[in-house]
Design brief:
heterodimer, A: alpha+beta, Glutaredoxin, four-stranded mixed beta sheet, two-stranded antiparallel ribbon, 6 strands, globular, B: alpha/beta, five-stranded mixed beta sheet, 4 helices, 22% strand
C-alpha cells in the first residue's frame, strides 16, 4: 500500500493531517509508509492534479474522490465537505475508507 | 508589516457586494470597527465566517461595525472574484459589509497575512486587538473567544484581555 500526502507549506493544516493519518494507521495496526511530497508551484499543482493541501492518496486514489474530481489545481488549502461542515482536513472515515478499513 | 497596537486604521474606499463604495470615514459613527480579512475559498474562513457574522449581528446595536474584505488575487483564485463574493455573501446572509480590495492596498496597509484575520479599532480608530476570532476552528471546542472578549472589554472602556493572537488560516493570495 502506498500512501502519498501532497502538501503546500502555505496551508497550516499539514500537521493536523499528519496527526490524523498517524492516528488512523496506528489504531488499525497498519504499518504503511507515508510519502510526503511538497507542492511548490502552480505548474506542479497542475501536473499532480493537486487541488489543495493536504491531498492524500492511497495507491493513487484520493481519499475524497469527489473533491479531487471537482477541485481546481492550485496552491491553496483544500476544502473537505463533511457531514459536520467544511474542514481543511479529511475525516477519519474518509481515510479509513480509502485504506479499506472502514467499519 | 502588520499594524501594531495603537496604530491608526488605514484609509480606504472600496466597492462592496451591495454595489456601494465604502470608505473608512463612512463608519465614523461606529464606536468600534472590526476589519476582517476574509475570502471565499479558504476552508478556515468557511469554518469561522458564521461566527463572525454572529458577532456582527450581536454587537450591531452596541456601536460595533464589522467590515469584511477580500484581497485575494482573483485571477489565480477565481473563487475569490467579486462576482463570487456577491454570491457568497448572499448565500451566507452576511449582515456586514463585504468589500473587494482588488488592489490589495488595504491588506498591505493592515499587514494581513491570513484569512480569517481580524483587526479591532477603537473610537479613535487605533488598533486594540489583532488576530484570530477565537481559539478553535471547531465551534464546540472554543475556549477563548478573543474577538468577543476584546469587544466586550473595549465597550466597557477596558483593555482586551488579549491584544494579539496568531491567526490560523490560509495565506492572503498576493499577486
Amino acid at each position: 500500500m502506498t500512501i502519498e500526502v501532497f502538501f503546500w507549506e502555505g496551508c497550516p493544516s499539514t500537521a493536523e493531517a499528519e496527526a490524523l493519518l498517524d492516528e488512523v494507521l496506528l489504531s488499525h495496526g497498519l504499518d504503511a509508509t507515508v510519502e510526503w511530497r511538497e507542492v511548490r508551484t502552480q505548474e506542479e499543482a497542475e501536473a499532480l492534479r493537486f487541488v489543495g493541501s493536504p491531498t492524500i492518496r492511497v495507491d493513487g486514489r484520493d481519499v475524497d474522490p469527489y473533491g479531487a474530481e471537482h477541485g481546481r489545481p492550485s496552491l491553496t488549502c483544500r476544502v473537505y465537505s463533511l457531514p459536520t461542515g467544511v474542514s481543511p482536513v479529511p475525516s477519519r472515515e474518509q481515510i479509513e475508507r480509502a485504506l479499506g478499513v472502514a467499519a | 508589516m502588520t499594524l501594531a497596537k495603537g496604530d491608526l486604521a488605514p484609509a480606504f474606499a472600496l466597492p462592496g457586494v451591495d454595489g456601494a463604495t465604502h470608505a473608512l470615514d463612512d463608519y465614523g459613527d461606529a464606536r468600534l470597527l472590526v476589519l476582517a480579512q476574509l475570502c471565499n475559498h479558504c476552508p478556515y474562513v468557511l469554518a469561522w465566517e458564521d461566527r463572525l457574522n454572529a458577532v456582527a449581528q450581536d454587537f450591531a446595536d452596541r456601536g460595533v461595525r464589522v467590515v469584511g474584505l477580500s484581497s485575494n488575487d482573483a485571477e489565480a483564485y477565481p473563487e475569490d472574484s467579486f462576482d463570487r463574493m456577491r454570491e457568497h455573501a448572499a448565500e451566507k446572509g452576511f449582515v456586514f459589509d463585504y468589500l473587494y480590495d482588488e488592489p490589495q492596498e488595504l491588506a498591505r496597509a493592515l499587514g494581513s497575512e491570513r484569512t480569517p484575520e481580524v483587526f479591532v479599532f477603537d473610537d479613535e480608530r487605533r488598533l486594540r486587538y489583532h488576530g484570530a476570532i477565537d481559539d478553535s476552528r471547531e465551534p464546540g471546542d472554543v475556549q477563548r473567544r478573543y474577538l468577543r472578549d476584546a469587544l466586550e472589554a473595549l465597550l466597557a472602556d477596558g483593555e482586551p484581555p488579549v491584544a494579539e493572537t496568531a491567526p490560523v488560516g490560509c495565506t492572503v493570495k498576493w499577486r
